[in-house]
Amino acid sequence: MQIVPNLPADTYSMHQKKAAVIGSGVAGLASAIRLAVQGFSVTVYEKNEYPGGKLSHFEKDGFHFDAGPSLFTQPQNIAELFTLAGENMQDYFSYKQLPISCNYFYEDGTIINAWANANQLAKELHDKTGEDENAVMQYLNGAATLYQNVAEIFLNYSLHKLNTLFKAPILKALQTAKGRHLFGSLHTLNNKAFTKPHTVQLFNRYATYNGSNPYKAPGMLSLIPHLEHNEGNFYPKGGMISITNALYALALKKGVNFKFNLPVERIIESGGKVLGLVADKKNIPADVVISNMDIYGTYKYLLQNPDKATAILKQERSSSALVFYWGINGTFPQLDLHNIFFSNDYKTEFEHLFVHKTMQPDPTVYINITSKCEPGVQAPDGKENWFVMVNAPANIGQNWEEIKPAIKQLVLQKLSRLLQTNIEPLIETEEILDPISIETKTASYMGSLYGSSSNSKMAAFLRHPNFSKNIMGLYFAGGSVHPGGGIPLCLKSAKIMSELVAADFSKQKQH
Predict the structure, then answer these.
(1) Which residues are within 8 A (CB) of 277 and not within 5 positions of it... i.e. 6 or more apart?
(2) Please, which residues bridge with residue 45 across strands?
(3) Residue 464 DSSP class
């Protein structure tokens, strides 16, 4: 049914500004809070019965599982929201810093405890692999400089507004970024920075933080380790779901209205201006609309613009994931909150993911165990809750019903071998998430976790802006638009978006 706009453009002059947010992922929640603080009457429309998007949670047989993102860095992004809202974060949310960022297990028996401290990590890599400590320190110091002088621009400003040239310290960024960061791959950079294959593989892994291939993604991604090994890695009390719960509670406190189980059918626009949206076959007026939905779906379904949606797919989609949630009857002292069991042939693994769109027989395995931080709470006493993830290609119609059991057996064989324990008999309960169910639950096209990948030199500049160039009042936030995926970047996208809204409304008042 075609919905025709029936609201004149000046309908809103007589009442409080209204904002409609589509989707309650972490960026949608942050967007709602920021716009409420700006004075908007904010309503969030969510197709699921719960907030959080990928940052969700479930419980089964006494085991608690964070269903999506498991890494928590830069808590200052969340603290900023509470400060902005005039609330005490400690009343809603608390966290602790972790001494170890991740434990890495290699097929040759090497185990590296990656300390969340540059000096300790450098010593660990030297002791375990013979890597030059100075090389590690130089790398992490360089990552800090890159982050402070380059990433601060990419992450805090719109790259699609001319005034960014005047507000952001562009010159310092140009002086900091070198050819190896812009034109070489992350692997090429790491291979020159280090002499030991174990170290190269460890730092190559950071390309997966936005679903990319380290053998294709630019060396600029070498700034990502700064977050964990210079700034620190953290654990939120109650698990990652506590981030969703805190932001949801804060949004409610600021007067945000939530409509769950109510998918948006269309965005209403006329004459180059947004007028609202359609939900439950009803026209709902709004001064601004913010889509936290995957940008592809926003254009194809909500704006009914298939040409623009197709153009977005010119950028390669990010990887997806296959996740096994296992309740384990037993404890493993050698494991920590974050654990990686590396593939023996990392390059081949990424060729399978991005070239052949398949999974190789020796996948890298990530295990997150929140019961390590809260034993007896996240899992029953003497047991552990394992979030077991392997990188998967975006869904292009692969037979996942065949892939899932095959990969499960490969993962069990790998873990049983490296942990010297038969894992399968210890599994008390299980749930599985695949690329198809990821798309179904989160509307992430093809199940891609981060929208587009960073597998090109211009990827950072090609991400969709946080505003529409053609429809006044339409804005975007979330992992599929600028500046990218992951919790810190999603929160920053909401900040950039809200600043654009404030600037645009200020201009309207002046005129």
Answers:
(1) 20, 22, 45, 264, 265, 266, 267, 268, 283, 284, 286, 289, 302
(2) 22, 259
(3) B
